[in-house]
Amino acid sequence: MSFGLKNASATFQRVINRALSLYRNFSRAYIDDIAVYSENWEEHMIHLETILCKLGELNFAVNLKKCLFARPHVKYLGLVIGSGRHQPDPDKTNTIENLPQPKTKKELRSVLGLCNYYREYIPSYSELVSPLTELTNKKVPDNIPWTKEHDLTFDHLKRALVEAPSLYTPRPD
């Protein structure tokens, strides 16, 4: 598929979702990142074989150098997932921790968008970021008037991300 086309990734996502639709109880796909998860080793081997056979049947190429098989934890979409738990990827949160203070509304929106991805790991996230969100208001100049309160909020937000807890995935049984 030509990825120069603006709808190519959405089209590919639809195709991969259809291809793996029968296997939703043990796999997830985001574009070309596929996660296969299982309760035990034997089940995992069956699940892996099922997914790989389906991909082969549909003539999808699998780059084995990019694959991780049978790992208790994997990094997937900015998270570390495994053993019934998930948490932000420390590599990502450490990058966020080292972000400089945003100077413009555009930079601040970008930072808030990035942090918002991890909001479920931060208690009272909306209340915490409220002073920063107010700076994105149309009435605020593009070069934002940063105060001590904003410094404290920004530092608290970054610290909360770095110290984010692991969350357990609910089990239906």
TrEMBL record:
GO terms of molecular function: RNA-directed DNA polymerase activity
InterPro entries assigned to the protein according to its UniProt record, in alphabetical order: DNA/RNA_pol_sf, Rev_trsase/Diguanyl_cyclase, RT_dom, Viral_Replic_Matur_Polypro
UniProt-recorded name of the protein: RNA-directed DNA polymerase
CDD domains noted in UniProt: RT_LTR
EC number of this enzyme: 2.7.7.49
Pfam family, one: RVT_1
Organism for this UniProt entry: Araneus ventricosus (Orbweaver spider)
Top EC class, one word: transferase
Reverse transcriptase domain residues: 1-81
